[in-house]
Amino acid sequence: MRIQFLFVACLLGCGALLGGCRKSASREVVIYTSVDQVYAEPILRDFERERGIRARAVYDVEAAKTTGLTTRLLAEKRKPQADVFWNNEFANTLLLRQRSVLAPYRSPAASDLPMQYRDAGDCWAGMGGRARVLLVNTTKLKPDHYPSSIQDLASAQWPARSVGMANPLFGTTATHAAALYATMGAEPARTFFRKVQARGVRAVDGNSVVRDMVANGLLAWGLTDTDDALGAVSRGAPVAIVVPDQQTTGAFVLPGTVALIAGAPHPREAKALVDYLLAKETEARLIAAGGCQFSLRAGAAPPKWLREPLKPLAVELTDVQEQMPLALKDLRAIFNR
Amino acid sequence: MNGAGAAIETIQHISIRHHNGRSGARWLAGGAAVGALALLLAPYLALGIALASGQYGEGSGVRQAFAYSGRQLLLLAHSLLFSGAVAGGALLLGVGCALKLRGMPRLGGLFLAALPVLIVVPVYLHGLAWAACLSSLAGGLPGQGWWAAGWVEVMALLPLATGIALVGLQAVDRAQVEAASLHQSDWRVFQHIEWPLAAPMLLVGLGLLFLISLTDYSIPSLFAVNVYAIEIFTQYSLDGSPAAALVTALPLIVVAAGLMLLGLARVRQAASTPWFRQTPLLRRERWPVLLQAVQGMAVILLLAQAVAPLIGLLVMTGSGHAWAQAMIAARTEIGSTLAIVGMVMLLGLPLTLLVAGPLSRADGVGKAWWVLLCLPFAMPAPLTGIGALHLAALVSWLPFDPGAGLPVLVSLARFVPVAAFVCYARQRRIDPGLLEAARLFQRSSAHGALTVRLPLLLPGLLLAGLLLLTLTAGELGATLLVARPGAPTLMIRLYNLLHYGASRDVAALCLTLMAGAGVTGILALWGARAWPGRGLN
Fold it and tell me: Which residues on chain B are in Cβ contact (under 8 Å) with A38?
């Protein structure tokens, strides 16, 4: 009898717990973010303190490949749970824009952003940028042997087994590949990636793995993002950062993006958070913390670790997004075998 | 009427009353079991409804996904071979370990208590540790390719394989083995009696290991090896369509479900083995020198797999202060994880009991039950998460926020079937005579279930609970899609930190997970041994 009573009590307890999980009436905003938790959390805590609005975050992880928050936002499209999407890149934001998941909102905080970092329909705006760079192990290579271009991935000058990049089917490496398709043209880009694969360059499980393998001397150099590269530098690893293609096409810069979700449950609070995230000061804080490395604002000073201002790859973000399906289809056939 | 006649009349009266009560209770139990199964399969049903209703509207993407290319089929063949070799290798080593450990009861007990500790750390982290180890062994050269990936995966699966082998060998009727060993060497007895009797259970274990390997892409990715599981994610990246991803996953689902059914059917056919008559090993076994060497090597590898991560994590964490700091920073995630695990245990164990019951049925319903319960084994975790999101949208009319329960639901859907099969194995080891005897005098079916059946099942339930706990604590793929805003889990934080490169915090969190799983494992083992009913069988 006592056990039966306990069982019923447990079930009632569960019900009460679930019932207690109803949305609270206090001011709050739900944010989905793929920015690393270590960078995003302090900014959101400050927002809570300054604006008196509770920010409840859902974070993404690199291990989920591209099936994380974008999948969730698409699946929740009919009944959104999120108010704001803060993405550390732009490709998935543009995909969500295409699928009508985002709502237009012209934030006053984004008024000083150049037009290429704002959506024509105001469905998203840029926030901080990262660049694709080459990370070199200084104990493995002398400065006169450092690579200087993305094209060096296909060069026989460096043994293929000592060179690495993240699997180009996912994340920023996939976006970078689509950017190369957009700037080089499909056929030359396809040929380049075929060469890279054929010579046996290591395609590893993410940019952070490239960083760690270069830092540990398992690779002589690799292609990664600036936030990963600077992480290795700040931890004292024997590495140097090479910004590629500065004499030619330029380095690929990926802007982060902030967007309001269509049908957001807390629209007023969401707009307050979007304004806060897009503010110049917040961008500066994120740069200082290491979450991104470049301000998207015109005339912004280059980061201290760069000797000269970075020359970016001239490519329209929408062109990159358009090339993505073709690039991924090709890369799947080239690399997934 | 004499005394004997009165006794017979009393027993007949009890039997008739019991029979009448039983048919009603059977309907009630059947209904509850169907309800429980429907709850577990609800995310998949919701996903099916979403796809059938054309919510994704990407017909061409799905049609293209159905046209499997030669490259995909070749990749699938490679993956099947790879996973087959990994599962076979892990199980052979596991059998070697189990044969050695069963002759060393204390070490065996310690291993069983430590098993959850070894399972709870994500295989990816084992992979990272072994990758560093392999590269240092190779003189700084990066270890990669099929062999390196295969080796690391075998090592990552070895603890589980050993646990499966221990359970499989333990289920063999010792009386038959003891009788045969009077005339033949232990090796011959093992070859001709023990191995064939344990084969069905080991085959199920092989299927489970094969499935884990087949659906994992993290370790192969680490060693730059492409496997079919990564195709699902690639397909999703192409067009963001869960329907196309599901179609791409279909060959894996079919192969996995087929293998599980084949293995489980063998177990059902082997029902004649009287497991409940099992007796412990009473004498010291004598094996050929070569086999002794293999067993010794397997145990050394198991110890390496068990001890190396622990030492590595302790060294990486550095100090108690660093550990405490990591814990304070992760207090929200620890709280959310504990809440989810607690709810999964609370709801999962009754659900396990309910869905495990019909597995014993030999009719068509029983077979269908096996098929349906095998389905979640083969479903990629993200698809479970997507299904759960659709379910929440379908039941949004409920008076409470259904999204709040999704992290619990996805773990229930993914792991209760595992727990149910563990319970089923335990169920088969219960002497039916004990239940029959109790039935004559129980007040009601519920009374009988609570006072006799449940205590007899308890060791199995403890193991099932332990599995639910460790698997839920380590879940990421589905939880990531349904985690409540403001309540990320420990595993989400762990992978986030891994990306950031905070190895000290990652190590501290892993140590905490291991400690939690270890304490629970010891408590469960103690509970199973201390339970008074265990002497009955």
Answer: 496-497, 500, 502
Instruction: Give residue-wise pLDDT tens across range A299-322.
Output: 888 888 887 888 999 999 999 999
Cα separation, A23 vs B401, in Å, equals 7
Pairing of strands A125-137, A54-59: unpaired
Chain B segment 189-218 residues within 8 A of A by beta carbon are 218
Cβ–Cβ below 8 Å for B386 and A75: yes
Are B499 and A95 within 8 A, CB to CB? no
What are B365-400's pLDDT values in tens digits? 887 888 788 888 778 788 888 889 888 888 877 777
Q: Does A306 fall in a domain?
A: no
Is residue B218 within 8 A of residue B157, CB to CB? The reply is no
* Among B42-46, B108-112, B314-318, B365-369, the least confident range: B108-112
Average pLDDT, integer, range B395-408: 83
Distance from CA of B424 to the nearest CA of A (A): 22
Contact A89, A34 (CB under 8 A): yes
Decide if A297 is inside a domain. no
**Full residue range of the structural domain in which residue A156 is found:** 130-252+315-335
Query: Angle at the Cα of A295 (from A293 to A298), degrees rounded to 5?
Result: 150
Amino acid at A302: P
Chain B positions in Cβ-Cβ contact with residue A59 (cut-off 8 Å) = 488, 492-493, 496
A125-137/A239-242 β-pairing: antiparallel
Report whether A272 contacts A107 (CB < 8 A).
Answer: no
In this structure, which amino acid lies at residue B490?
A: L
Note the ipTM here.
0.75
My answer on whether A260 and A247 are in the same domain is: no
Handedness of CA B172, B175, B180, B183 (dihedral sign): positive
- The answer for A 70-109 residues in CB contact with B (under 8 A) is 70-72, 74-76, 78-79, 81-82, 95, 99
How far does chain A reach from its first CA to its final CA, in angstroms?
61
Cβ-Cβ contacts under 8 Å for A16 (sequence gap 6 or more): none
Q: Are A321 and A223 part of one and the same domain?
A: yes
Same domain, A237 and A321: yes
* A197 vs B: CB within 8 A: no
Cα gap A224→A246, rounded to integer Å: 16
Same domain, A135 and A248: yes
Are A123 and A134 in a shared domain? no
Domain match, A82 and A103 both = yes
Q: Is residue B415 within 8 Å of B471, Cβ to Cβ?
A: yes
Instruction: Supply the CATH number for residue A330's domain.
Output: 3.40.190.10
Residue A117 sits in the same domain as residue A41: yes
**Is A303 a member of any domain?**
no
Cα angle value B303/B305/B307 (rounded, 5°): 60
Q: How many domains does one find in chain A?
A: 2
Burial class from Cβ neighbours inside 10 Å (0-12, 13-18, 19+) for residue B4 reads exposed
Question: How confident is the model over A27-56, as a mean pLDDT?
Answer: 94
Residue B342 burial (C-beta neighbours within 10 Å; 0-12, 13-18, 19+)? middle
- Whether the CB-CB separation of B275 and B173 falls below 8 Å is answered with yes
Nearest to B401 among A21, A211, A332 (CB): A21
Checking if the pLDDT of B535 tops 80, the result is: no
Instruction: Tell me whether residue A177 is in a domain.
Output: yes
| Residue B355: partners with Cβ closer than 8 Å, 6 or more residues away | B33, B36, B37, B40, B369, B373, B416, B417, B420
- Residue from B155, B133, B463 nearest B312 by CA: B133
Q: Coil, strand, or helix at residue A50?
A: helix
Please indicate, yes or no, whether residues A32 and A86 belong to a single structural domain of this protein. Answer: yes
B142: contact with A, CB 8 A cutoff? yes
Alpha carbon distance B284, B182 (integer Å): 13
